[in-house]
Design goal:
two-stranded antiparallel sheet, 2 domains, alpha+beta, 5-stranded antiparallel β-sheet, OB fold (Dihydrolipoamide Acetyltransferase, E2P)
């Protein structure tokens, strides 16, 4: 309970400072903070229980030696299983608490994004919605554009669309650069990378993998239907306060 309380306090601290979105989506911050508050309340309530009160139910009121022996054996097994569960849970919880206290809040790395690349082809069902034959791209982020690039049946619809997008640099299989952003649904466990190829981005200067950049440019459709972003301006920026898309 003490370890859970520490995690709850850390969670509330991250929520109050706005850094909990490094781990969960904004829509679930309230749930995580509410669960943390309930954990603290439960911890305080547990302190009001008399020590040893939970053992009173283990006493047997039988009178026979045979019944007493069986009861003692069952109680011994329960104690052994309880001790094993306590030790296992304590080790795991201690590791989680230690990591929460020692490691600073940080976003997912570019290396993790590269390792997860290709796990999901189309990130978002519905990101390529078309109204009256014209795609509305005004609100598209890197995730929506990545889905459109992967699934568009009429790539010429997007040709000439102006974009201003933010993400970090990852290398592409073709030897160029990708603009990448991690997209999460609920929390960082389900995070998936969304990447967009940058045409001639290397001519804008060298960028290290993981460097955050802001790209202004135009979407171009090649003759084979492949979509790419043709940058007109690329500038280095600091990592945004909220590094994910949702």
């Amino acid at each position: 309970m003490g370890l859970a309380t520490i995690v709850a306090v850390v969670t509330l601290g991250l929520g109050l400072t706005g850094r909990l979105t490094l781990y969960v989506s904004p829509e679930t911050v309230w749930f995580a903070c509410a669960a943390a508050a309930l954990t603290i309340i439960a911890a305080i309530w547990s302190c009001t229980l008399p020590l040893g009160a939970e053992q009173e139910h283990d006493h047997d009121h039988g009178t026979t030696d045979h019944g007493t022996a069986e009861t003692d054996a069952a109680a011994s097994r329960r104690r052994s299983l309880g001790a094993a569960a306590t030790v296992s849970g304590g080790v795991i919880a201690s590791g989680v608490v230690l990591a929460a206290l020692v490691l600073p809040p940080a976003s997912l790395s570019a290396e993790l994004a590269m390792s997860r690349a290709g796990e999901t082809t189309a990130l978002f069902a519905g990101a390529d919605d078309v109204t009256l034959g014209v795609a509305d791209t005004t609100t598209f982020g890197v995730g929506e554009w990545a889905s459109a690039f992967a699934t568009a049946t009429r790539p010429e619809t997007y040709d000439g669309a102006a974009v201003t997008l933010t993400g970090f640099v990852t290398p592409s299989d073709a030897g160029g650069l990708n603009l990448t952003r991690m997209v999460i649904t609920h929390c960082v466990i389900d995070a998936q990378p969304a990447s967009l190829p940058l045409a001639s981005a290397d001519s804008q200067g060298g960028y290290a993998t993981g460097q955050w950049i802001e790209v202004t440019g135009t979407v171009r459709a090649d003759a084979d239907g492949t979509l790419r972003i043709e940058p007109s301006e690329v500038k280095e920026i600091a990592e945004p306060r909220d590094p994910y898309e949702y």
